[in-house]
Write a structure and sequence with these properties.
Mean pLDDT: 87
Shape: rod-shaped
Distance between the termini: 149 Å
Structural class: mainly alpha
Low-confidence stretches: none
Oligomer: single chain
Strand content: under 5%
Largest sheet: none
Order of helices and strands: HH
């Protein structure tokens, strides 16, 4: 009976090919992965800050350009009106003199 129990115990015993060296390697791998995650998070944060800075620069740049275009358009309208006033005054004066000559 003892022999059969010993034989049965050997059949049920499963040899796990996992040593202490394997466990140490797994611990080292986990430590390296966690340090890499921290480095990647730092780099992603710094890249996000750079993208935010670039976005702010574009907002300012486009704001300044649009302001300059609006100023230029307003100046062109003002300039045309002031340039046309003497011509309109002269044409109305010429029209009045031609009307006076006809009468």
């Amino acid at each position: 009976m003892m022999v059969s129990l010993h034989a049965l115990a050997q059949e049920q015993q499963v040899i796990v090919p996992y040593t202490l060296a394997d466990r140490d390697r797994a611990i080292n791998t986990e430590a390296k992965i966690s340090s890499l995650e921290a480095k990647m998070e730092y780099k992603f944060d710094s890249q996000q800050k750079q993208l935010d800075d670039i976005k702010t620069l574009f907002y300012w740049g486009f704001g300044i350009l649009i302001s300059l275009f609006i100023f230029m358009l307003a100046y062109m309208i003002w300039d045309r009106r002031t340039a046309m006033q003497p011509a309109l005054a002269q044409s109305s004066k010429a029209e009045e003199t031609s009307m006076a000559k006809q009468v």
